[in-house]
Amino acid sequence: MGVDSNNILEVKNIEVVYDNVILALHDVSLVVPKGKIVALLGANGAGKSTTLKSISTMLASERGKVTKGTINYNGKSIDGEIPSQMVHRGMVQVLEGRRCFGHLTVEENIIAGAYSRQLSKGDLSAELEKIYTYFTRLKDRRGSQAGFTSGGEQQMIAVARAMMAKPTMLLLDEPSMGLAPQLVAEIFNIVKELNQKEGVSILLAEQNTNIALKNADYGYILETGRVMLEGTAQSLSNDEKVKELYLGISKGERKNFRDALFDDAQKKNTTAPSPTGRKFKIGGPILEVKNISLYFGGVKAITNISFNILKHEIRAIIGPNGAGKSSMLNCINGIYQPQEGTIWYKGAVLDQITPNLISRMGISRTFQNLALFKRMSVLDNILVGRKLHTKSNFMQVGFQFPQAVKEEKANRQKCEEIISFLEIEDIKNTQVGKLPYGLQKKVELGRALATQAEILLLDEPMAGMNVEEKRDMCRFILKVNDELGTTIVLIEHDMGVVMDISDRVVVLDYGKSIGDGTPDVVRANPKVIDAYLGVAHD
């Protein structure tokens, strides 16, 4: 079968192997017609990013290789090409995670995309102004340091930078990851405009199935490295299997996460939090934030925020990107020192205390972007969390002093208990970097549990997960709270999750508190609906 001139990209029966051992893709085929948007959908670990990197020739940097099949771009094979050559041929990939140069300005980041084009000063200025017609938000922030922009703005910077290379095809990897619904809609509107007005063909790897199928012409669904379904966006949207696996439960059938998890557990004969009662009753304030303000140079990240956290509760912090949520967590665990206000923990002021000391006091943290040791095993990663409870020094451990041996044995036993609690015994000796994203998130939760913290600060623990992975993570967050009595502080963009599992919610917008109360109270707050969701919803 020859190359179809109507297709800008043809991938035929490719197989991808990592480290000459791990089969990541098997017999994957897809096409992208010229001027169209094609969605590549699937759970974490399904092979979406691997497919994009195979096409952009970026696999070699991750010890991956296309071992079978062919990839043709604009009628010619990409065999033997390197990423820079693909850019010259008109293909540009926007990687997952945005990858902005934080110390450069917004405009300097965008200009970097035109590096290989050697434009004159006048042409460069004209190209920039054209880009700003699509990214009006970035024009207003062109002189700002990119590292101080919101997650949504950094995603826009990454796409704008790619467009400065004048591509005929864009590969977009998870552009909605970790973003509020309003910003996701804004970014996809821009992507649609670039497709329609600039004629850029787009292959989109996306976890958010709803938004992807609303904007795509055609879609492919990957499962465990294989194409399991394909069809027009309309046909996939109406497919019952797609609805069940990727779109979640319909409004009429939707159950509260606690109820749904309990029902699932009954069927599978596993444990889950009971929807009718809790082992640990909510107590008085364990942590209080009073009039906190945080500045970065002249930029005000947080302004006069006050709220408290009750012992044994699940306390959510929500708001649009750039609202100050992660900055607030960074103040609580000592990464940032606020210029104004006070944070009290069990009656003590957390002032000029390092993150290490705060961890020893009983406050532990997970991060939005995974901070695991990818080449270490699951067990060894979780053991890192026991460092706080280790009294033996390097010499005592090295020479196997009896106390050190006893301590090591106790720490390993504790980690084995955590692994059992999280139901990951079968992967405890697996290298973390070889695990799917959802399992890596669970390992990070395990490492935080190993510190035996009274308060867990969870920064977007479900970002990038599909419905099933979110249900699984919710189950363990509720188990940690219900069975261990751990107080949870949760940052999360999925409003369904937040409203179902949280006891109370505080809402931030532009660094200020605009709402605080139970989920029902917050859900009915017009300021919250306007700031977080953008529109009133059912």
Description:
- Helix 3 runs parallel beside helix 6 (151-163).
- The protein has 21 helices and 20 strands.
- Mean pLDDT is 85; it is low at 246-254 and 533-538.
- It has 538 residues and is of the alpha/beta class.
- A hairpin with a 2-residue loop joins strand 4 and strand 5.
- The chain is 37% helix and 25% strand.
Give the helix tally: 21
* CATH homolog superfamily of the largest domain: P-loop containing nucleotide triphosphate hydrolases
The poorly predicted ranges are 246-254, 533-538
Topology-level CATH name of the largest domain = Rossmann fold
Rounded radius of gyration (Å): 24 Å
* Biggest beta sheet attributes: 6 strands, mixed
- Oligomerization state: single chain
Give average pLDDT, whole number: 85
Examine the secondary-structure arrangement and name the CATH architecture of the largest domain: 3-Layer(aba) Sandwich
Task: Count up the domains.
Answer: 2
How much helix is in the residues? Answer: 25-40%
Morphology call: globular
Q: What structural class should be given to the helix and strand makeup? A: alpha/beta
Range of strand content = 15-25%
CATH top level class name of the largest domain: Alpha Beta
